[in-house]
Design goal:
Layout lengths: L1 H59 L3 H15 L7 H61 L7 E3 L2 E3 L3 H12 L10 H4 L3 H12 L3 H20 L9 H24 L6 H23 L5 H20 L5 H32 L5 E3 L2 H10 L5 H5 L4 E3 L4 H20 L6 H29 L5 H16 L1 H12 L13 H29 L16 H16 L5 H23 L9 H19 L16 H12 L2 H7 L12 H18 L7 H27 L1
Antiparallel strand pairs: 1-2, 3-4
Helix pairs in contact: 1-2, 2-3, 3-6, 3-8, 3-10, 6-7, 7-8, 7-9, 8-10, 9-11, 10-11, 11-14, 11-15, 14-15, 14-16, 15-17, 15-18, 16-18, 18-19, 18-20, 19-21, 21-22, 24-25
Length: about 725
Amino acid sequence: KVQVTDTNRRLQDSGKEVIAQTEEIIRCRVQQRNITTVVEKLQLCLPVLEMYSKLKEQMNVKRYYSALKTMEQLENLYLPRVSQYRFCQIMIENLPKLREEIKEISMSDLKDFLESIRKHSDKIGETAMKQAQQQKTFSTALQKQNNINYGRNTHLGKHRVWESKNEITLKRTFEEDDEHEEEVLTVQDLVDFSPVYRCLHIYSVLGDGEIFETYYRKQRRKQARLVLQPQSSMHETVEGYRRYFSQIVGFFVVEDHILHVTQGLVTRTYTDELWNMALSKIIAVLRTHSSYCSDPDLVLELKNLIVVFADTLQGYGFPVNRLFDLLFEIRDQYNETLLKKWSGLFRDIFEADNYSPIPVANEEEYKIVISKFPFQDPELDKQCFPKKLPMSQSVPQIYIQVKEFIYASLKFSESLHRSSTEIDDMLRKSTNLLLTRTLSSCLQNLIKKPHIGLTELVQIIINTTHLEQACKYLEDFITNITSVSQVTVHTARLYGLSTFKDARHGAEGEIYTKLNQKIDEFIQIADYDWTMSESDGRASGYLMDLINFLRSTFQVFTHLPGKVAQTACMSACQHLSTSLMQMLLDSELKQISMGAIQQFNLDVIQCELFASSEPVPGFQGDTLQLAFIDLRQLLDLFMVWDWSTYLADYGQSTSKYLRVSPSTALVLLEKMKDTSKKNNIFAQFRKNDRDKQKLIETVVKQLRSLVNGMSQHT
């Protein structure tokens, strides 16, 4: 027992270490099993944590599209494996928040992008317009060299191509020759479109693509309205129009790029609708603001800007026919501004003219004049220097200004994509307006000015004659510019002939009027003594002054066409005759003595002598003297006192006093009867005077019966 007890004790003592080792082994195995379990679980969780860490990193570097892809992998692949852990629940709860954060950030970036392109659309448009202009210039140069037009814009696939490879090579060659050419930039070089792409991808991934498209189009429509709204002072400077066009071009260049590099964000239907809306607004704005332009240079600059604007957008596929139709409206306005400007130029030329023939001292001066104006006169060429050309200085100046007007009108017709025939027609129509309206109006106003005297009017008639002859040279000038033959059926003719004929007629009428006015001035200073007993024996002083004036005036008319001078002379004589007759028959004149009749007869004789002296050549026989026939027959009747013959032959075509009407004779006879009664107080005591008084009373009665008979017959 003792031995067994001892053995047991020793066995127990020996087993304690074994038990301790066994327990240690058990503990280690449990720990090892736990470690294995933890490693297995961590191997499941680590990818999730790594992906989440990657997500955070992507968010930090703003790689939002990749972050969304990472979230998708987390949700679909990694998180379901460890969904029992609390940190996974936290992640699952954070993912929607991260998505909203990504949407908000991308939308904020989009808003910044929209604001940026709104501010820089003018720069974008300016660059695009400059490139279009350079391309057009280059294409024109190539066409002249090779008769091949390389200026085309094409689309390759879904991306915008500014030029073909050949065009790029040729353009670079062309630009290398010009040290001042800038590097060709595209819209991608000027604008970073990544916010749009990024936001579009993000919203597409999140299933909100339609919401993004709606928002983008709505915002761009708002921006389009802002871009299309012009400044109130835009019409005052070229820069105002240039900025306006640049903004619009920039807007549609961006939209065109978005159309070709994104799928569905904008469509061709959308851009066409937006363009049609914009085009209507642009045309309305240009109509309004261009109407304020009174400077033809500004209107021309506007036209050039519209052409570049239209060519640029046409290169992007936008229809621009309405813009070219608008240019035809602006062309009419441009012509109006030109007409106003040239009206001032014509007025200045007429004001500065001395209205005297151009003196030329030598051959050199003569060549200078004919280099400006197509003048030909073989008779004048035979004369020696110094000599005078018949027209005044305003004629070559007017001719030069008409040619300058044609050049100015041609500038607007360039780049309108019109045929030579149409351009020729436009030039001729605008030139006709210049001649028939502007120049004609200036000539008519000039003729009516009070300081223009008879000498100036004569020179104006001569000037218009030479300008009329120069019209055929203006037609040749237009033909040389447009290369359109004048024999073409639809070629308009210049109406200069009618213009200058009308001006001449106006000047001729004014000559007649001024001559008559001058005659009236002399008549007004006449101072007859109507009760004189005997005449002075010589003509009145006022009448001799009048005849001398007419004689010197008609000498100036030698350069006028024969009919004009003859008509003026006849008109003056007839007016003088009528004025003298009215003086005799004036109702305020109550008495006329025989001495006054004799004095008046002397004055009429001087008038007849003047008429018979042929002051203007070309009259046949005594045609001019017939202007005074009424006065002559009336005075002869009273001077001879041949009343029996007058009364006996009255009404017969062979009557000696055919031109004397009974009413005229009655008026004058009654004036003499009153004089006889008042001056001859003792007439009743002298038989001859009594007989004469009875004769006058008898003739008066007979004349009154004739006058009354004529009245009843009438």
